[in-house]
Fold each of these.
Amino acid sequence: MDLDSIVGHSEIKEHIKSSIKNNRVNHAYIFDGPDGIGKMTLARAFAKTLNCEEGGTEACGRCTSCRTFDEDNNPDVIYVTHKSSVISVDDVRDQIVKNLALKPYKNRYKIFVIPDAHKMNEAAQNAFLKSLEEPPDYGIFILLSENYNNFLVTVLSRCILFKLKPLPYDTVADHLINKEGIDSEQARLYAGYSMGNIGRAKMLMDSPQFRDIRDKAAKTAAELESADMTKLYDIIDEIKAYIKEDKQILDTILENIYMIYRDALVYIKTGDEQRLIQSDKLSDVFFIADTASGSSLIKRCEAIEDTRVKLRNNGNVQLLLETLFFKIKEK
Ligand SMILES: [Zn+2]
């Protein structure tokens, strides 16, 4: 993967290219953003370009450095690993500090890519700081992080911080059609769930559990329309049995019910099937569009968002679902 073939993130790509062109490459970068947003892809393209023997703003793909890089065999690009849930001071000493003292084997730069860098504990960051403060000319660090607030100010101040933003819906859908080869209905569906994140879209596409959860959510949404109080409590019991105390699954169910309501609302307002995301759940969407009003659907969506926030803040599942379903049943 080269810089030019990466989807989106154009400001970051431009920054990288211009710093290479003007010989102003910094020693340390942070690529920050959620899992799947493209941090590693960017970091790899950056590292490959930096060490390309042609020295251009785009890796040539032919030189020894590029070829060994593509084979994951470039001795001067090091991926820092960690065995436990944190990156410890030993990880930093063994893999970064000691290694940095040795000159690059063949290439201009010795590049350390640090996935999960936000998991460096304070001691590890302090150990890393020494390398960061006085790096040799050849030392480059690319930190991948899901939360840059975890870095010490002293670390942060020495890095160029790139925040990776979600991609537009159409960009994700086009990518899924053109690069992943899925049809446009499926592409619309998964782009809708992607939150602007191609990695997330691909992960969901490959997940049988996600398909099962979507079916469960659609069934629940349809049942809720006609449920009386007794049935409503049955639905809650069924959901609790289904999620087995995994709140992440419940969150995904709620997200899916939200998406069905969203589609029903769009259908009421526009009558345009092409705008619907849940292309494989159209009968449920039409049924709800028939039975619920637009204003009620808006309130329901707000109630679901509210419930998801409370769920993340450790709210009680039974109480949250009761409150939510009462609101959904409100005329
Ligand atoms: Zn090259």
Note: Residues 3-163 form a domain with the Rossmann fold fold (CATH 3.40.50.300).
Amino acid sequence: MDPWKFVTHDQFPAIGHNLKLKVCPFFRRVGTLSLHGYLRGQDEKHHPSVRARRIFCSDRTRRPGCGRTFSLFLSHCLVGLKVGTAVAWAFLSGILAGLSIEKAVYAVAAQHDLSLSTFWRLWQKLKGAQAAIRTVLSRECSPTSGPLRPP
Ligand SMILES: [Zn+2]
């Protein structure tokens, strides 16, 4: 996992502690990063929540940074989606248990008061990310020996 993309809840408050000792992922220079606010959104229950911490590579007042910002997301967030990893996992578990995509969507959407289009967007993102997911999985574990079952 990219250390500059996701952090856990435990790591989140300590992001700024040694930020000046970290390397900018774009500029590859140390000592230029600073905290730059929060990325906020709504969770699955439509409550406002913090989704990420913004980091700024400072180029102000003759500082040598590149001026770019990036986000450190909480690890339970899915970038670009309202649903978190727990709801996404419930949806995928339904599919793995043998439900059709439609039935898995209805089962999870009814439990969490979410629109059906949310899960279709999640499904389309998963389909579009197959190459990246399979590349990571091939590095992390061996292929399964069981029969392949397309969803
Ligand atoms: Zn930079």
Note: Helices lie at 85-96, 101-112, 116-128, 130-140.
